TrEMBL record:
It comes from Gemmata massiliana. The keyword Isomerase does not apply. One of its GO terms (cellular component) is membrane. This is CzcB-like barrel-sandwich hybrid domain-containing protein. Residues 145-291 form the CzcB-like barrel-sandwich hybrid domain.
């Protein structure tokens, strides 16, 4: 028997090529046999062929709108479902940015009703007012300061007004003269009844009394026009009654020139423009007081967001959160939508108020504004990841049975979107509250539904 090498030497080049080809052919046949999964084993003296079972589960389409997903494929895709729900009764519009300011309706500028010289400045709660005389002005404290709280009726400053003192003195003199002339008239009239005096004398006394009454009414009208309180006018009449007595002592008229400038509202002093010794007139703003228990909110709303607000009935409640104190919400009201659009920023001014009873908000603070609106009853809410978009329509996959391997694709109409949820029209796709919609793995399920062929009818 010849060796292989000797045989190839004898056959030459052609023989060697034929031998190599035979080896390759045998190897190819063996590989094909292994790939087919055929296994040969001795059993009962014979040879038996076995094929490995197909353990790969298949996902398939069923009808025009259903897809069947075996349990092991569901696990590998990570499919999860949650029930579709009705939206809450109210929802929040997208937040708007704004700024706080003082409410113009709660700001008061305080002036002196009479021109004169400031002889005393009011003091804050807990301080003692300084005693004064017209020629000496207090300097031991600065009186009221910006930021001090005042109550309605508190004395803010005292002005020495020579004009007011003169008018009060004129009124007292007129009342006193009237009373004296009335006594004279009554005495002359009694004498006239017993022929003790001439009628001409009585008539002149009567005309004098009438002139005195006119003078009193004119002086009183002037005081009322200058808004002198009624109790001060009554006190002046009492002083005049005392002066009519023979032994009466004249009241110090210097006090009549004293004018107390009082706070017209309760609030905080925002501005102070007066000091003791200063000469002021009726147009000078001595103080500016603001009621900061309620502040104004200004929101510059972009014109593309206006339709969201214009549909609302006003006033409407809104929630305010200050950037300086995140997590703390303050209630207020949206009251007015501006009628003009800023041509540079393309925004409209939306204004309202916010409650500030604790005083922790400040004018100028940046705030975030949230408005609640009622939700339509024809809506269903699903998680945002449940909606599959293919560029033409939106759809969700709903679990069709309790076994969890059959899902129905339902086209839906999106009403609005938010960060976490999407609202769907209740009549679209037959979706109902409580339907189990696929959330995790919905995109993979949508791709499989599109790629798999639809079964033939």
């Amino acid at each position: 028997m010849l060796k292989l090498s000797a045989l190839t030497d004898r056959l030459g080049l052609a023989g060697r090529a034929l031998a190599v080809g035979g080896v390759v052919l045998v190897a190819g046949v063996a590989a094909a046999w292994l790939a087919a999964g055929t296994v040969r084993s001795a059993h009962g003296g014979g040879t038996v062929e076995k094929k490995e079972p197909d353990t790969v589960a298949k996902i398939r389409r069923d009808g025009t709108d259903q897809i069947v997903v075996p349990a092991d494929v569901c696990a590998s895709l990570g499919l999860k479902t949650v029930p579709a729900t009705l939206p809450p009764a109210t929802r929040n519009l997208p937040s708007f940015q704004g700024v706080l300011n003082f409410d113009n309706g709660r700001l008061v500028r305080v002036q002196s009703p009479f021109a004169g010289q400031v002889i005393e400045a009011g003091v804050a709660t807990g301080q003692e007012p300084n005693s004064h005389v017209p020629s000496a002005f207090p300097s031991s404290n600065a009186g009221l300061r910006v930021g001090d709280k005042v109550t309605r009726g508190d004395v803010l400053a005292v002005v020495w007004s020579a004009d007011l003192g003169a008018k009060k003195s004129e009124f007292v003199d007129a009342v006193s003269k009237l009373k004296t002339d009335e006594k004279t008239y009554r005495r002359l009239d009694e004498l006239y009844q017993i022929n003790g005096t001439a009628e001409r004398t009585v008539r002149e006394a009567e005309r004098t009394v009438q002139a005195d009454r006119v003078a009193v009414e004119r002086a009183e009208a002037t005081l009322r026009a200058w808004r002198v309180p009624a109790d001060e006018i009554a006190a002046l009449r009492e002083s005049a009654d005392q002066l009519s007595a023979p032994d009466a002592k004249r009241t110090d008229p210097a006090k009549w020139a004293r004018v107390e400038v009082k706070a017209p509202i309760s609030g905080v002093i925002l501005e102070k423009n007066v000091a003791a010794g200063q000469v002021v007139d009726t147009t000078s703003d001595l103080f500016r007081i603001g009621d900061v228990s309620t502040l104004a909110v200004w929101v510059h709303l972009y014109e593309e967001d206006l339709p969201l607000i214009c549909k609302l009935s006003l006033p409407r409640e809104w929630a305010i959160s200050a950037v300086a104190s995140p997590g703390t919400a303050h209630t207020g009201k949206l009251e007015r939508i501006g009628m003009a659009i800023d041509p540079a920023q393309h925004t409209a001014l939306v204004t309202g108020t916010v409650e500030n009873e604790k005083g922790d908000l400040r004018a100028g603070m940046a705030v975030t504004v949230t408005v609640k609106i009622p939700t339509s009853s024809d809506e269903i809410e699903v998680p945002a990841e449940a909606v599959v978009e293919d560029g033409r329509e939106s759809s969700v996959f709903v679990r069709a049975d309790s076994s969890g391997d059959r899902y129905v694709r339902r086209p839906v109409t999106v009403v609005r979107r938010s960060r976490d949820t999407i609202a769907i029209a209740a009549r679209s796709g037959g979706l109902k509250p409580g339907d189990a919609v696929v959330t995790s793995g919905s995109l993979l399920l949508g791709s499989a539904f599109t790629d798999l062929p639809q079964p033939k009818p």
